[in-house]
Every structure is written in C-alpha cells, then in structure tokens.
Amino acid sequence: METPVYEPFNVKIRIEIAKLRKMSFKDKLEYIWEYYKPLLLAVAAFLIILGSVINTMVFNPPAQTALLIEWSAGFVFDEQLVTFTDVLTERLIDESDNEIVTATLFFDAPQDPQMQMAMTSRRIAMVSAGELDILIQNSEQLTNTTQIGMIMPLDAILAEIQSKNPMIWGIAEERLIYALHDPFEDGGEERIMGIDISGSSLLGELDFYEGKLVFSVVTNSGRLENVTNALILLLESV
Predict the structure, then answer these.
(1) What confidence score (pLDDT) does residue 185 get?
(2) In order of start, what are the domains of the chain with their CATH numbers?
(3) Shortest CA distance to 105 belongs to which of 140, 138, 74, 60?
C-alpha cells in the first residue's frame, strides 16, 4: 500500500491560484462557493457573532439595574409594575447613566406549595446575589421579613433624608414603622424597619392596591443612594 503524499500548504495555495487564473469570473465564484462553502459559512457566522458582541459591549451595552423592587403587597398586573418602574427611571436616573429601575412580583401561594417554593427560591437567590434592593409589602410581611433578617433598620437612610430634605423627613417621621430587630436574641429591641407609603399619589395614579403599603430595604442592598432617592420621591407624593 502506497503512503499518501501530502502537499505543503503553500503548494496547495499556488495550485488553487493557478486554477482560478484560468477561469472566468463566474466560474471563479461557482468554484469558490462549491469547494469552500463550509469555510465561508463558518467565517460569516464568526463575523456576525463578533459584530454582535462588539455592538453589545461597545456601542449599545444593555442598561444596568439601578434599583430592583419587589412588590409583595398583593397582586398587581405586569403593566402596572412596568409603568411604575418607568416613572421611577425617568425621575431618578440620568439618561446618560444607561440604568433602569426594575420590579418583580412576589406573592404568597399557600394553596400551591410548588409555586410557593419556586417564589421563595427565586427571592432567596436574588437576595443572595445582591440583586434586590426594596420591598413594598404589608405590615404582616414586614414582621416576617424582619424576623428572618431579610431587611435592614432604616436609621442611616433616614439620617441621610433628614440632612438632605428636612421637609420629607417631617413626613417620614410620622410614618415610621417599628419591628422587633433580632427577635431571637435576648434584649432584642424595636427598630425602624419600614416606612408607611400608603396614600402616595404616585402609586394612586397607577391604580395600585390601596391597602397599607410598607417600604423596606433589603439587608445587603448595595445601591442605598438610589434607595434613598426613591423613598424621597414616594414620600413627596404622599
């Protein structure tokens, strides 16, 4: 059996060039497409992917999350949450920052254990990843989220509001909600864990649930400046 002879790559190139020189323009195109179609398609796919990556990373990067709000105070429609976050984005975020406010719906589903487990798992994952910033909930939920250590006392945020906007601080001072912090420790004390934002005209205009709404802040939120500004905006419209 004869051992196959492999031509060097540069020799193959010269042979191919010689073939192409003898062909008409149309024959060249047909020859290249017939024999190099897989390679051409692979190169085209690579260029498309590369262009998409460059466009996403350099020219049109996706908007970053400036705030993520969880609505827990009863059922609302997605359209309401979208309108709500659009208003907050417009009023809180500079257009040049390429950031947006987003919201997600959390609801208890004791009649559906699988749904309840899925919702709880999603919430835990978001908190663990530091993605969640604000909870809008009711009084009963405030007690629960305080007991499991999910939300933080609001002392630092309120001190910031008091220094930046005394008028808003006056409104907030009348709406403070206390809950027992570290309830399983001896000598646990009540701390300011929420602010009553019921009656906010901003929420009323969007036809949100009109029961008692409590604004709380997730323990590991890393966007406290935006959180503070969002609370000011909500209290301004009370």
Answers:
(1) 54
(2) 9-59 (no CATH), 64-236 (3.40.190.10)
(3) 74
